């Protein structure tokens, strides 16, 4: 005869869970099918036991079928997230508690004295709109040059700024307590450079590519053998950039390569010489002046007076004197 | 510099609120992942598990090489995925020579790995290989019965752990009201040996019986497999305590030092702090500050004034 203890199942109706701790499976395995059959039979008994409990609950009839109120589950399972922490009271809430200020429910619609009708408290066409005031009477304390409308705007901005700051402080306190509201995130933004108002500009994709290219070309092999990061595109012009000047000059133009090498040489020499006079330039200037003079006299006699006069009035330039500007 | 970021759309706000920690929790969402290498068995197990848990499971199809649940550094990816998808239980399948047809079931607490259990799959039979009358096929998303049989689930600690994890896995949503017509599936877990559990999924047939309670019959429909316990990692004590804590468990803080007396009313004790006699300040001994001196000075002034008066008279 089976005793009661053999049949006691641990049932958790809230989870539709049944546990039979007393069944012993034969250690010598019978065939697979037999084993499966045995398992199913035992489970069937468990399910029947749970169903007995379930169907005996009072059920309410609905369109979809009888609905039953499940008891809360009894198996203790770990939580998936922490218990929500209580939010610390905000600065205002603390103050209100101390002073005994009660919260009062405000109506959405308020009686407006001026227009003798009900107007909404917030939004379009609201009561006591700050922007709608046509005339602000001057007080004795007002300075003559001040714009009261601008002043009002300023004050509003200050109020809003203060409110934002207070809100941030409250949220920071909440975050410290681990109770930040679920939809709010506090993110650190980069600090602006002291003295400047603007925030550092975000570098775009193209700019980054250019910079990468620059870095590559600064290597000895011109970035040809640099390992590429995943997603990096090949540079537009690989290898070293050689700019070869034309050897043969165009008509009338100075030979650029010769000019380049001459410049280099003169720089080297000038570094070692102590003269800061650019002799070539000085001579050129003198020659040009001379030619101008000549052309002035020969071509237009009428105008020569002017030029001549101007010439005479101008202080004569002494070429032996060193010019102020440095040699190039 | 801090910036407050709030969601700009109502939908985003609702999603964030859904993911916030709640006082009373509904069931866990499952994350199903592949490891570096998976065999056909493991892939089909994962696929079928996903189908069974359709409403509350997310299946990733790519291979994850850097997830090694049992190693200390190999959990970061898992934690990231858990945070991204808001899943707190995961099933990770892999196949290696040392551990063929491996399945790691793990749970998360606050998106950190809470506990792990590793099982091997043997004798797997897919859902497609079962033939039954399609009328009784269980619908998607119905709440299942879960049945555990065998003394192993109570005596062997690994099996006990597995029982808990399987309950969490198969439980589905925790609901208050249940529709009795929607009972059509049951998971059968039997501890056939101290290291093996036979798991199968059955459909329910409710047959007419004489009483209100119908006669239940099980028909094997779903995947069936043998789970061989390999490794497990239990949560550490402090984490377990914290995770098992429910709001009802928190005892009301007793006000210390306060007693209610019928005669005297509310009484409390005041404890005096230690009097450090060697560090105490004695009175100021400087000449000008002596109280007797001051008093005598005042007295003298009075007598003087009196004398003057007398003399003036």
From TrEMBL, chain A:
Skewed-composition ranges (Basic and acidic residues): 148-157, 224-235, 296-321
Disordered as annotated region, ranges: 64-90, 141-167, 217-259, 286-328
Subcellular location: Nucleus
Domain of life according to the entry: Eukaryota
UniProt keywords, alphabetically: Nucleus, Ribosome biogenesis
Key word NAD present: no
InterPro entries: Ribosom_reg
Nucleus in keyword set: yes
Principal localisation: nucleus
Membership in a protein family: Belongs to the RRS1 family.
Biological function: Involved in ribosomal large subunit assembly.
Name the record gives this protein: Ribosome biogenesis regulatory protein
Protein species of origin: Camelina sativa (False flax)
TrEMBL record, chain B:
UniProt keyword terms in alphabetical order: Nucleus
Regions of compositional bias (Basic and acidic residues) in chain numbering: 239-249, 275-285, 293-313
Subcellular location(s) of the protein: Nucleus, Nucleolus
Domain Brix residues, every copy: 28-238
InterPro entries reported in the protein's UniProt record: Brix, Rpf2
Keyword Nucleus: yes
Region described as Disordered: spans on this chain: 238-313
Family the UniProt entry places it in: Belongs to the RPF2 family.
Protein name, UniProt field: Ribosome production factor 2 homolog
Gene that this polypeptide is encoded by: LOC104766278
């Amino acid at each position: 005869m089976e005793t009661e203890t053999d049949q006691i199942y641990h049932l958790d109706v809230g989870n539709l869970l049944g546990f039979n701790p007393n069944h012993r499976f034969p250690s010598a395995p019978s065939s697979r099918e037999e084993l499966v059959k045995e398992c199913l039979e035992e489970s069937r008994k468990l399910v029947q036991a749970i169903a007995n409990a379930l169907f005996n609950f009072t059920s309410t009839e609905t369109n979809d079928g009888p609905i039953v109120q499940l008891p809360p589950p009894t198996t203790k399972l770990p939580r998936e997230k922490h218990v929500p922490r209580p939010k610390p009271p905000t600065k205002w809430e603390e103050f209100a508690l101390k002073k005994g200020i009660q919260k009062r429910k405000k109506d959405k619609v308020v009686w407006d004295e001026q227009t003798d009708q009900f107007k909404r408290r917030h939004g379009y066409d609201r009561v006591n709109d700050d922007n709608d005031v046509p005339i602000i009477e001057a007080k004795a304390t007002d300075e003559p040059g001040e714009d009261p409308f601008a002043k009002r705007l300023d004050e509003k901005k200050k109020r809003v700024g203060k409110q934002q700051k207070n809100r941030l402080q409250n949220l920071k306190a909440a975050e410290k307590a681990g109770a930040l509201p679920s939809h709010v995130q506090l993110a650190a933004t980069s600090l602006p450079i002291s003295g400047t108002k603007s925030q550092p500009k975000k570098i775009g994709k193209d700019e980054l590519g250019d910079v990468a290219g620059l870095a590559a070309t600064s290597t000895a092999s011109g970035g040809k053998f640099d390992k590429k990061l995943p997603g990096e595109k090949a540079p537009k012009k690989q290898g070293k950039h050689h700019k070869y000047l034309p050897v043969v000059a165009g008509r009338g133009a100075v030979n650029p390569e010769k000019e380049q090498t001459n410049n280099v040489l003169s720089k080297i020499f000038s570094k070692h010489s102590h003269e800061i006079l650019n002799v070539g330039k000085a001579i050129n200037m003198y020659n040009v002046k001379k030619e101008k003079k000549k052309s002035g006299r020969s071509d237009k006699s009428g105008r020569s007076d002017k030029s001549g006069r101007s010439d005479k009035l101008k202080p004569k330039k002494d070429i032996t004197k060193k010019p102020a500007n440095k040699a190039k | 510099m801090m910036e407050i970021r709030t969601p700009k759309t109502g939908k985003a706000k609702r999603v964030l609120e859904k993911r916030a920690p709640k006082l009373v929790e509904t069931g866990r969402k499952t994350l199903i992942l592949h490891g570096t290498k998976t065999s056909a068995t493991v892939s089909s197990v994962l696929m079928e598990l996903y189908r069974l848990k359709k409403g509350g499971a997310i299946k990733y199809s790519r291979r994850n090489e850097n997830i090694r649940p049992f190693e200390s550094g190999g959990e970061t990816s898992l934690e990231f995925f858990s945070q991204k998808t808001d899943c707190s239980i995961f099933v990770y399948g892999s196949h290696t020579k040392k551990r063929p047809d491996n399945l790691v079931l793990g749970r998360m607490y606050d998106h950190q790995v809470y506990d792990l259990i590793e099982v091997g799959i043997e004798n797997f039979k897919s859902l497609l290989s079962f033939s039954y009358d399609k009328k009784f096929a269980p619908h998607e998303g119905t709440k299942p019965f879960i049945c555990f049989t065998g003394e192993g689930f109570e005596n062997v600690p690994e099996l006990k752990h597995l029982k808990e994890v399987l309950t969490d896995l198969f439980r589905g949503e925790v609901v208050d009201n249940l529709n009795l017509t929607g009972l059509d599936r049951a998971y059968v877990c039997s501890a056939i040996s101290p290291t093996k559990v036979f798991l199968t999924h059955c459909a329910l047939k409710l047959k007419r019986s004489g009483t209100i309670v119908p006669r239940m019959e099980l028909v094997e429909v779903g995947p069936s497999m043998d789970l061989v316990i390999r490794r497990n990692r239990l949560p550490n004590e402090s984490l377990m305590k914290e995770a098992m804590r429910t709001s009802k468990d928190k005892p009301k803080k007793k006000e210390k030092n306060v007693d209610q007396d019928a005669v005297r009313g509310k009484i409390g004790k005041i404890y005096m702090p230690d009097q450090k006699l060697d560090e105490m300040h004695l009175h100021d001994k400087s000449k000008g500050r002596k109280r007797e001196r001051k008093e005598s000075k005042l007295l003298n002034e009075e007598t003087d004034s009196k004398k003057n008066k007398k003399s003036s008279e």
